Amino acid sequence: CRKPVIPNNSFASNQIPEVEKESEPEEETDEDEGPAPVIVENESYVNLKKKISKRYDWQAKSVHAENAKICKQFRIKQASRQFQSILQERQSLPAWEERETILKLLSEHQVLVISGMTGCGKTTQIPQFILDDSLNGPPEKVANIICTQPRRISAISVAERVAKERTERVGLTVGYQIRLESVKSSATRLLYCTTGVLLRRLEGDTALQGVTHIIVDEVHERTEESDFLLLVLKDIVLLRPTLQVILMSATLNAELFSEYFSSCPIITIPGRTFPVDQFFLEDAIAVTRYVLQDGSPYMRSTKQMTKEKLRARRSRTAFEEVEEDLRLSLHLQPQDSVKDAVPDQQLDFKQLLARYKGLSKSVIKTMSIMDFEKVNLELIEALLEWIVDGKHSYPPGAILVFLPGLAEIKMLYEQLQSNSLFNNRRSHRCVVHPLHSSLSSEEQQAVFVKPPAGVTKIIISTNIAETSITIDDVVYVIDSGKMKEKRYDASKGMESLEDTFVSQANALQRKGRAGRVASGVCFHLFTSHHFNHQLLKQQLPEIQRVPLEQLCLRIKILEMFSTHNLQSVFSRLIEPPHTDSLRASKIRLRDLGALTPDEKLTPLGYHLASLPVDVRIGKLMLFGSIFRCLDPALTIAASLAFKSPFVSPWDKKEEANQKKLEFAYANSDYLALLRAYKGWQLSTKEGMRASYNYCRQNFLSGRVLQEMASLKRQFTELLSDIGFVKEGLRAREIEKRAQGGDGILDATGEEANSNAENPKLISAMLCAALYPNVVQVKSPEGKLQKTSAGAVRMQPKAEELKFVTKNDGYVHIHPSSVNYQVRHFDSPYLVYHEKIKTSRVFIRDCSVVSVYPLVLFGGGQVSVQLQRGEFIVSLDDGWIRFAAASHQVAELV
Ligand code: CDP
Ligand code: MG
C-alpha cells in the first residue's frame, strides 16, 4: 500500500469552504421581507450571522417616541364604553383575582411560575396585566412582551382575541408571528408567537434586545422546543437581569419548573368549574344499546344504513361486535336476545347505569381485549345521537369530540354528514365543526360562535382543544382516548407521528372541558380498567421519546452554545434524555455530514437546523433543490416522512405486489413510488371518480397520497422560507408553465425541476439522505452448466443472493419490495430506509445505487489508494471498496 493519493475526507463531507475575507455587509433588510439569506458562493458564514443579528437592532429613541403615542391612545381607549364593557367580562375571569399579586411578585422577582386551570385567563389576561400596567407609566418603561405558544393556531386565535378585547385590529399593539406568517408592526408590544419563532430569533439575537418579558405558555406540555427554550432562558436571565420570565402552566407540576429556576415563586390561580359526570366505555355501551333499540331515531335512520355500509365491506358490523361483547358480559347464551336484556327506552341514563353497574367489571374485561378502534366512530355517532335526542336529564350544550388526528376527524365528519340528523346543510338541529391546526383562522373562529337556540354545536377536534383553545359553551365531551404523539421509530431510525393512548392527565384535562359554564358529562371511549391500570399518569416529555438530531443542531446554531459540548448542554435540561439517545443522534448527524467529529456545525448542518423535519428528510429536500430534481425528491421525502401509499390487503397480497411491479423500474421501490404518484396526480385531474378508480386498481391508498401532496406543499414552503426555492416571478412562471415547467425556481433562479426525469440522479439523492443505510448484495458464482454450445455460467437464483448491512449482518428483502426475487442487480449496493424485524430482519423499500453516488453523496469517510497500478476507492474503512481507472478518480476529485 502506498500513501493515499487523496487525503481522507477531502470530499467526504458536504462542506462549503469558509471564506475568510469579510465582504461588505449588505443593506439591512426588513425582518419580515423575504426569506432568510442562503449561503452563496462568496458570502461567509460570519457575514451571514452579522446580517441576521443586525435585523434585530434595537433603536431605543424611536421606540420611546412610539411608546408615548401608544400610552396616550390607551388612556383615551380605556375611557370608551366598548372597552369598559369587555373589561367587565374579562374581570370575571379567575386570573383577575390574582392581578395585584402577580404584578407585585413581578416587581420583586425576575422569574415567576403561574399555574391555573385551563380557561382561567392565563394566556389572554396575564400578558395584558403587565402591558396595561406599563402603559399607565412613563414611555421608557412600556413593556415589550413575547408570549410563546406551542401551536400556530393558538398563537393566532389568542392574538385575535386579545386584540378584540382591546378594541383594536390585530397587528397594532397586539400581534402574532408564526412560521411564514406574521401580523405585527412597530407598535406591537405584545407578540404571541410559536416557540419555534422565538428560538429562531434567538439565533441572531441572543440578548433579546428590547424585550422586557418572555412568557412561556403551556410549559406543562413539555414539548422539545419549550424544554429547550427554558434551558436557553436559564442562561439569558443571568446575562440580562432586566429581562423577566414567566412560565405558565395548567395545574400540573408547577414545582418542577420553579425548582429549575432556583425555586422562584409560584402563583396558583384558583379554578372555578362545575362538576362533570365521568363515564367510561362500559357505560357508553349502555347508551349505545339504548340508542340501538327499535323505535329510537337512531335505529330508524342510521342502523339500517350503517349495516348496509358494513355489509358491503363484508365485515362484522361494529354493532355486532359490541353486541357480542355485551352478550359475553351479560352471560347470555347464543340464542338469547341482547335486546331483551337492555332497559326500556324511557329509562333515564343514570337509572340505566345503575342497572349496569353490577356488570361493569366483566364488560371491562372483554373490552380491554377487544379491538375497539373499529367501533369507536360508530359509538361516537351513537352517543351524539343520544345526546342530541335529549331523552336524558342533562342540559343542552355544545359537544366536543376528541379524536387523534386530521384523518379521523375527516372520517367522522363525513360519516356524520351522511346522517340527516347531523348534516350541516339539511339538519336544523346540529351544526358540526372540525377543529385542527391546519384550519384557516376564519374557520377556526367558527367554533367559538354560539349557535341559535335549539341547535347543538358539535366540534370534532384534535387535542388542540385540550388546553390551547377554550370553547365556553361545551357541556358534553367525548374522548376517544387517542392522540398523535411524536416518537422515535426504531425500525426507521427516525421520528414518526404515532397514534397512542392519552395519559390520565390528558383524559382528566379533556373531561374538564365540559364543566366550564354548567355541570357537564364526559364519555371516555376506553374502560375504567384501562384508565386506572394502563394509562400513564402523565405523558412522557417529548425530549425523552424523540430522536435528538434536530435539537443538537438547534443547540449548535445558537451562539451561546456553539462551542459547548453537546453532552454538557443536554445535562442541564429540565429532565435530560438518556445519554444513549444523544450518542446515537450524534452518530447519525456525523454520518449525514451535518456535524464534524469535534461537534462543529457544517454548512449542511446549518441549513438542516432551520428545517423542522427529520434530518434525513431535510437533507433529501435540500439536495433535491440543489440538484434540480425537487419534485421527485419531495414526493419521496413525503412518503418517507409519512408512509408508503402502496397497500397490501392480507387476502390480496400477491395481486397487490404484482401491481406494484408494474410501476417498477431501475430496481427501485422509490422510483416505483414516483410513477405511482404521478399516475395518481394525472388521475386527480380527471376528477374524484377517476382517482378513486386509479387507487383501487393499483392498490394505492388515496388518503396517503393526499396526505403526501399536502406534506409536499408544506415542504416547499419550508424550503422557500430558507431561500432554497423561489416561487417564480409571475411572468417567468407563466413562461415556464408554457414550457411544461412548474414555475418553482431554485435559489439561483433556475427551474428547480430540470433534472426531475433523471433516475440516476434521484437515486444519488436517496444515497445522500439514507446513507449509511446500505446493503451489499453478495451473489455466488453461478453454477457451470453444460449445454450444446459448451459450458455456460448460469445466473444465480434469487434465493442464493445474500444481503449484508454494515452493522447488522445478513438481512432479507421484504416480499412487498420490487426487488424481491430479483436475480441480477446492476450494482451490488442498495440503499434502504426501513428495517423491520419479524421472523427475520427485512429491509422494506430499497433502491439500487451505483458506487459513485455512494462515494460522492454518502457522506462517509473516503480514501483512495494506489494498489498494483490500480486505484482502490474505499468508503468507511473499506466496507465499500471498488477499483477505479485513473480518469474516473480524476473525475471524482
Ligand atoms: O390560558 P387559559 O386557559 O387560562 O385561558 P384563556 O385562553 O386566557 O381564556 C380565557 C377566556 O377567554 C376563556 O373563557 C375563553 O373562552 C376566552 N377566549 C375566547 O373567547 N376566544 C379565544 N380565542 C381565546 C379565549
Ligand atoms: Mg392558555
From TrEMBL:
Keyword Heme listed: no
Span of domain Helicase ATP-binding: 103-270
Catalysed reactions listed for this entry: ATP + H2O = ADP + phosphate + H(+)
Domain Helicase C-terminal: start-end pairs: 379-559
Enzyme Commission numbers on file: 3.6.4.13
Highest taxon of the lineage: Eukaryota
Reported function: Probable ATP-binding RNA helicase.
Family: Belongs to the DEAD box helicase family. DEAH subfamily.
Name recorded for this polypeptide: Putative ATP-dependent RNA helicase DHX57
Residues of the full protein shown: 224 to 1116 of 1158
